[in-house]
Design brief:
3-stranded mixed beta sheet, single chain, alpha+beta, elongated, 5-stranded mixed beta sheet
């Protein structure tokens, strides 16, 4: 470098600065020959991510070639958005900040420092919900339909490591999503039960219940396993019972039917045959199909089907939340294409997975819809009349 300590002292003098009032270290910053930043990126970290980084916790960037990348910790997912800055960001690792400069009794010291990289863009990280639509699609490709049909199943395996590599979610969020999808492990990979196979399994269990004169609230798990394990594998029966039954606090062998879950299943089973019904006929078919003692309620189909009582005749249509786009504007377009006006109670199940809490649903509605009141009832519709 051409500058010397004498040059620095001359600049201080010409600037009419008091050398004694300045820190004793002068830092001369210069550009090296190569400040290409292609192999380095700058991230603006939220406080919680900075703490994780200091604790040396693992970060993973996930996404396929056509995905917008996300950053995942062990338990959370963050959107990565590239932003430009009007000021050049310089990477100068040897630069000392004032708090790090000690007092010197030997007079002014000159330190020459190299700029390693220069950046005009950086990545903003914002908390986001995991992208789970692909998970359901992958599980649907590996439906369990019984041991006799295993040879016909797609040969691609779905191990946890495979899912981690393809699903944009943290490991904790992925495990939670597998539980929500009622996935179980078979030969080291995740599977879910085909809806027809679920129906067959319930028919077998119901036969055991009738044979032993049990009520829906007091069935013996061990007897069920012993009675039908020669027809359906034990791990499949246990996966079914985990989904549709509660375990007694007093005796782990005593189980009771989850009325809401079984009612929801039978509703979806009917929609597996027909996508739309007359509302009156559907409610009648649905009640007739569920086990005796279970009372159906349209609320059991929250996020799965939508009733249109204003139609002539009134209808109910299969409209599962899991089939809708994960992109927020696209989801609202799909919702208002299905139904022009929604009450808060109707639309919330279709938005709740996009936000962190139910309170945030109102913020989404404010941004992407317009509200109106008809006969004292608040409705939400497309913001621009689309």
């Amino acid at each position: 470098m051409s500058r010397s300590l004498e040059n620095v002292l001359t600049v201080i003098e010409k600037a009419k600065l008091d050398d004694d009032s300045l820190l004793s270290l002068s830092q001369l910053v210069y550009y090296s020959g190569d400040i290409n930043q292609e192999n380095s990126k700058v991230f603006e970290l939220p406080k919680e991510l900075l703490e994780d980084l200091k604790s040396q916790k693992r970060f993973v960037i996930r996404g396929n070639e056509n995905d917008s990348a996300v950053l995942c910790t062990d338990s959370a997912t963050y959107d990565m958005t590239e932003a430009e800055t009007s000021n050049l960001l310089l990477a100068v690792p040897e630069l000392s900040v004032p708090q790090e400069i000690p007092e010197s009794e030997e007079g002014r010291v000159l330190k020459i420092i190299e700029v390693r990289k220069a950046f005009q863009t950086y990545f903003e990280l914002k908390p986001t919900k995991p992208k789970l639509k692909r998970l359901r699609e992958m599980l649907q490709s590996r439906l369990y339909n019984g041991p006799e049909l295993e040879m016909e199943v797609d040969s691609k395996t779905l191990t946890f490591d495979e899912l981690c590599g393809r699903i944009q979610a943290s490991e904790k969020e992925l495990k939670d999503a597998l539980d929500e999808n009622h996935a179980f492990i078979l030969n080291g990979e995740f599977r879910i039960l085909d809806i027809d196979y679920c129906y067959r399994t319930w028919s077998l269990i119901e036969g055991v219940k009738e044979e032993n004169s049990w009520s829906l609230n007091s069935m013996k798990k061990s007897v069920i396993l012993e009675s039908i394990s020669h027809i359906s594998p034990v791990y499949v029966i246990e996966a079914f019972l985990k989904r549709f039954c509660h375990i007694s606090d007093e005796d782990e062998d005593i189980i009771s039917l989850n009325h809401e879950e079984i009612a929801r299943f039978f509703g979806e089973f009917l929609f597996n045959r027909n996508q739309q019904y007359s509302l009156t006929e559907f409610l009648s078919y649905w009640q007739e199909s569920v086990p005796e003692g279970v009372v159906v309620d349209i609320k059991h189909l929250s996020g799965l089907a939508i009733a249109k009582p204003e139609s002539q005749p009134p209808v109910i249509r299969f409209f599962p939340e899991y089939d809708l786009p994960e992109d927020v504007p696209q989801r609202f377009m799909a919702l208002f294409a299905m139904k022009p006006k929604w009450t808060l109670e109707e639309i919330t199940p279709y938005l709740i997975r996009l936000v962190s809490s139910s309170k945030d649903v109102n913020a989404l509605l404010t941004k992407h819809s317009r509200a109106s009141v008809v006969n004292g009832v608040r409705y939400f519709s497309a913001k621009h009349g689309n």
